[in-house]
Specification:
Elements: E1 5-6, E2 12-15, E3 22-23, H1 33-37, E4 41-43, H2 45-59
Antiparallel strand pairs: 1-3, 2-4
Length: 60
């Protein structure tokens, strides 16, 4: 559980962060209505696919 996935600026299709950002693929969370009301953006599908695959590897 030590593989963080960097989010390159070009992977933000909408929104983003001002600082470097990374995904923690094993950090799966349930979201509530407050998280839906304040969202950060939309990521490219390829990056999401990579993250889901990494989560699957961690769970095996």
């Amino acid at each position: 559980m030590n593989r963080l996935i960097a989010i390159p600026k070009e992977c933000w299709l909408r929104g983003g962060t001002s600082d470097e950002s990374r995904i923690v693929p094993w950090g799966v969370q349930s979201i509530d209505h407050e998280d839906i009301d304040f969202w950060q953006g939309c990521l490219a599908g390829d990056l999401v696919d990579e993250t889901v695959a990494a989560l699957g590897e961690e769970l095996q």
